[in-house]
Each structure stands twice: as structure tokens, then as C-alpha cells.
């Protein structure tokens, strides 16, 4: 063991140009998957609160399966398992986006369910008494309030999904970790490179946190 090891800052900063191409892939996979997952989450979240039992059960099954299994297993199943069923390969980028979408969708569905159910029943009853239909009451009264309450947990899910993309190097997606692995294979500077990868992930998630904080403040100010 080399007790005289010195952190090589020049190697760390020298890896930046090689790591930067991984940022667009990381953002594309995470935000692309989250955009799809948001609509999946809304769909299954509303099914979860449906008064019709046979509509609730598919949503419950979806949430339990994809919240109860690791996203790494999910992306491996999509990338390696589904092609055996479909008879054709699946692009690594598509597999990564799909994994983020179905995984985040399961969590977002619970966020949607909790947000809608947090609105007091009296508001719906008051809306109906004013002559609004159930659909209008939900669209104009319940949903806007629920959406404001969902902003913090949705932001947290977004940050988690960005960090989850680091697992997709196993299928060859050229995100930050994969770019770092390629660079390390030729320079043998693992500590310095992974240090910079961590800083880049921190910069992305910290920036997203600031944006979400501003959105949350504006949402609260609009109440």
C-alpha cells in the first residue's frame, strides 16, 4: 500500500474535457425518463384513488412491482431480457430512458395519490355545491392545489432519477460514469476521475434543487 499517495489535481482537472460529453446523455436519460414517468405517474396515481376496485388493482400491482425491484435489475431486464422476447435488440439509450420512466412513474403515482388525497373533502363538496361537475371540480379546484403540494416530492424524485443514471454504465450508455470508466482505463487515475464525476453530479443536482426551490416559493406565493 502506497502511504505516500498524493491526490493529482492536474489529472482531476484534465479529465473534465473527457467527462463533459457524458452530461448531455445523463440529462437526456433522466429528464426524458422523468417526463414520460410524470404522465405514467399521473395515470396510475389517479387509478389508485378510483372508487372502482378493478381499476385500482392494476395500479397497485404496477407500483408494488417497480418500487419493490432495483432500477438496475429493471434496466438489465429491458436491455438484455426484452430483446429475447421481442426478437430484436433495444438501444441502450432507449433502455435507460424506459427504466427511468417506469421506475419514476411508480414513485410519482404515489406522489400524485398523496397530493390529491391531501386536499380536504370539503373543497370538492363546496365546488359541487357551486354547480361545478366532478370533472370541473377536480380540474379547477383539486388538481391545482395538489400539484403545488407535489412540487417538493417531485423534485426529490427528479434528483434521485438523475443519480440513478450512474447505474446505466453497465449497459454502455455514455453518461458521466461510463465516460469516467473509459478515461480511467487509459490513465489509471480512478480516484481523481471519480472525484470529478461526483462533483459534476453534485453540480447538476444542486442546480436542480435551486430551481425547484424557486418554483416552490413562487407556488406558495401564489396561494
TrEMBL record:
Note one Pfam family from the annotation: BPD_transp_1
- The reply on keyword Cell membrane is yes
CDD domains linked:
TM_PBP2
* Superkingdom of the source species: Bacteria
Annotated signal sequence range: none
UniProt cross-references to Gene3D superfamilies, sorted A to Z: MetI-like
The keyword Membrane belongs to this UniProt entry's keyword annotation: yes
The UniProt record lists the ABC transmembrane type-1 domain at: 23-212
Function, in words:
Part of the binding-protein-dependent transport system for glutamine; probably responsible for the translocation of the substrate across the membrane.
Name the chain's protein. Nickel transporter
Q: Which organism is it from?
A: Vreelandella alkaliphila
Source taxonomy: Bacteria, Pseudomonadati, Pseudomonadota, Gammaproteobacteria, Oceanospirillales
Amino acid at each position: 500500500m502506497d502511504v505516500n499517495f498524493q491526490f493529482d489535481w492536474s489529472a482531476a482537472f484534465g479529465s473534465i474535457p473527457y467527462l463533459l460529453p457524458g452530461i448531455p446523455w445523463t440529462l437526456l436519460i433522466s429528464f426524458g425518463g422523468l417526463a414520460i414517468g410524470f404522465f405514467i405517474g399521473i395515470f396510475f396515481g389517479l387509478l389508485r384513488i378510483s372508487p372502482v376496485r378493478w381499476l385500482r388493482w392494476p395500479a397497485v400491482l404496477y407500483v408494488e412491482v417497480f418500487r419493490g425491484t432495483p432500477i438496475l435489475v429493471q434496466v438489465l431486464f429491458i436491455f438484455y431480457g426484452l430483446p429475447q422476447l421481442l426478437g430484436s435488440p433495444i438501444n441502450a439509450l432507449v433502455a435507460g430512458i424506459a427504466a427511468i420512466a417506469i421506475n419514476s412513474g411508480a414513485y410519482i403515482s404515489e406522489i400524485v395519490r398523496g397530493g390529491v388525497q391531501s386536499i380536504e373533502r370539503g373543497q370538492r363538496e363546496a365546488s359541487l355545491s357551486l354547480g361545478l361537475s366532478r370533472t370541473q371540480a377536480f380540474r379547477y379546484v383539486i388538481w391545482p392545489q395538489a400539484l403545488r403540494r407535489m412540487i417538493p416530492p417531485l423534485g426529490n424524485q427528479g434528483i434521485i432519477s438523475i443519480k440513478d443514471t450512474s447505474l446505466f454504465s453497465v449497459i454502455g450508455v455514455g453518461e458521466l460514469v461510463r465516460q469516467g470508466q473509459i478515461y480511467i482505463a487509459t490513465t489509471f487515475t480512478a480516484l481523481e476521475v471519480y472525484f470529478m464525476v461526483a462533483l459534476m453530479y453534485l453540480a447538476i443536482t444542486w442546480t436542480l434543487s435551486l430551481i425547484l426551490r424557486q418554483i416552490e416559493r413562487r407556488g406558495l406565493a401564489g396561494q
